[in-house]
Amino acid sequence: MTTAYEFAFVGINGAPLPLKQFEGRALLVVNVASRCGFTPQYAGLQRLHQEYSPRGFTVIGVPCNQFLWQEPAKETEIAAFCEVTYHITFPMTEKTPVKGGKAHPFYKWMREVLGKQAHPAWNFHKLLTDKSGAPVAAFKSGVEPDSKELRGAIERVL
């Protein structure tokens, strides 16, 4: 059986970012963008990461420029924006396609397992795995990080 830990991204700093390093942790993988109406969700994602990290939870930000080109910046600029504006400490990937034929294999796999709900329709779409790396749920962009719906799902996998 495939798990999330079998996939790897490239980190925002250009270094390999294998999900295997998070084995045993629940993951919330979120396609993000700096020029989106949902960009303020970075603050809530950072709160989730800080609050739940000690319990085996990691947020992973995946910058994506596929939705009205709302992430045009280079990786160094994205990293600086996230650090300065939102004090982001969770792992971030390089800019990565999340939909269509060039979608990252992780996103293709999540869609195969969870169905259409796992297909990002916009920035800040959230994909949750449990501590065994199995897909659990997908949350649309409008589901705020601090929502009862998302927090409840995180609590259940922890």
Describe the protein.
The chain has 158 residues and is of the alpha+beta class. The protein has a domain at 25-132: Glutaredoxin (3-Layer(aba) Sandwich). Helices cover 28% and strands 18% of the residues. It contains four helices and six strands. It has a four-stranded mixed sheet with strand order 4-3-5-6, with helices on both faces. Strands 1-2 form a two-stranded antiparallel ribbon. The longest helix is centred in the N-terminal third of the chain and has 12 residues, at 41-52.
Can you give keywords for this protein?
two-stranded antiparallel sheet; 158 residues; Glutaredoxin; alpha+beta; 4-stranded mixed β-sheet; 4 helices; 18% strand
Q: What about the largest sheet?
A: 4 strands, mixed
Distance between the termini: 21 Å
Sum up the overall morphology in one term.
globular
Structural class: alpha+beta
Q: What's the mean pLDDT score?
A: 97
Lay out the secondary structure.
Elements: E1 8-10, E2 16-18, E3 26-32, H1 41-52, E4 57-63, H2 75-86, H3 105-114, E5 126-129, E6 135-139, H4 148-157
Parallel strand pairs: 3-4
Antiparallel strand pairs: 1-2, 3-5, 5-6
